[in-house]
Design goal:
With about 150 residues, the chain is mostly beta strands. The protein has a single domain (about 10-150), classed as Jelly Rolls. It is about 10% helix and about 55% strand. The chain has one helix and ten strands; from the N terminus they run E-E-E-E-E-E-E-E-E-E-H. It has one helix at about 140-150, and strands at about 10-15, 25-35, 40-45, 55, 60-75, 80-90, 90-95, 100-115, 120-125, 135-140. The longest helix is centred in the C-terminal third of the chain and has 12 residues, at about 140-150. The chain is globular. It starts with 10 loop residues before the first strand and ends with a helix.
């Protein structure tokens, strides 16, 4: 599969609302998902735009393919910024469950490959500024879509 030139990818667009005071504008495309909890996704950030504030509930590896990904790690107890970094093309990272952070695309945006392993099915939680859970992402609807397409 060519990740750069693939008209078969189905991109889902996410934007902000009045619940958020930062610009949210990003896309995701499912590459693969298996019942054992392995999920591979592409995420694309628009320039200088964020994804939702979140906590990973799965083991997560990522590789920056285009642009820059700006990451701000947040203390889940206090909400205080712990660190920030700019991940550039070729940067690879692995984080275990519980990683709380904000991400945004750089001036040119970003394209990042993510591989998650969630044996319990829980991938991530979208959070409010105070750390309350707004929603959960699980493998269940992803696998249901794949199974529906296979029929």
């Amino acid at each position: 599969m060519n990740l750069y030139d693939n008209d078969a990818l189905r991109w889902k667009h996410y934007t902000g609302s009045d619940k958020f005071d930062y610009p949210i504008d990003y896309w995701s495309a499912l590459l693969n998902a298996r019942a054992d909890g392995h999920v591979d996704l592409l995420y694309r950030w628009e320039p200088n735009s964020y994804c939702h504030f979140h906590r990973h509930s799965a083991d997560t590896t990522s590789l920056v393919l285009e642009g820059e990904l700006h990451v701000i790690d947040v203390d889940p107890e206090t909400g205080a910024e712990l660190s920030s970094r700019i991940r550039k093309v070729g940067d690879y990272a692995h984080k275990g469950p519980g990683d709380v952070h904000m991400e945004r695309g750089g001036p040119e945006g970003a394209l990042v490959l993510f591989s998650l392993y969630a044996p319990d099915g829980l991938l991530a939680e979208t959070l409010t500024k105070d750390g309350s859970v707004l929603s959960q992402s699980t493998t269940e609807p992803i696998l249901a879509k794949i199974n529906a397409r296979a029929r």
